[in-house]
Design brief:
18% strand, 118 residues, single chain
C-alpha cells in the first residue's frame, strides 16, 4: 500500500471552515471606469478605503492594448508609430564617406588622448 504525506484520506489541502468573506470577496470596493481612444470601457475595482491619489489615472486597456484614462471625453491619444522603413530608406540616411572618415578620425584622436593621459 502506497501512502504519502500526513494528509487524511478524503481531505484536500486548504479545506476548512473559511468562507468567501474570510477571503476578502465581500470587502467594500469602488468601481473606477477607464476609457481608451476607441471608446472601450474597462472597469477596475479598488478597496473602498484607498486614497484617491493611489488610484492610477491611466491603465492599459485589455480590449485594445491602448492606454486608457479616467476622463471619458478626453481619453489618452493613440500612440504614433513610425512607418516601416525599407533598407533603401536606411541607405539614403547613411553618412557620406567624408563624414564617416571625419567621425573615425575624431574617435581615434579622443582614444589616443585618453591613453596618453592614462
Amino acid at each position: 500500500m502506497a501512502t504519502g504525506g500526513n494528509a487524511i484520506r478524503g481531505t484536500r489541502v486548504g479545506a476548512g471552515p473559511m468562507g468567501e468573506q474570510d477571503h476578502g470577496f465581500h470587502a467594500d470596493r469602488i468601481a473606477v471606469s477607464y476609457w481608451d481612444a476607441l471608446g472601450n470601457e474597462t472597469v477596475r475595482y479598488f478597496a473602498a478605503g484607498i486614497p484617491e491619489e493611489e488610484i492610477p489615472e491611466t491603465i492599459d486597456s485589455p480590449h485594445s492594448g491602448l492606454p486608457a484614462g479616467r476622463d471619458k471625453e478626453n481619453p489618452p491619444a493613440v500612440a504614433k508609430t513610425e512607418p516601416y522603413k525599407t533598407h533603401l530608406a536606411y541607405v539614403k540616411e547613411r553618412r557620406t564617406e567624408e563624414e564617416a572618415e571625419a567621425l573615425l578620425d575624431d574617435a581615434l584622436k579622443q582614444l589616443r588622448e585618453r591613453r596618453g593621459q592614462g
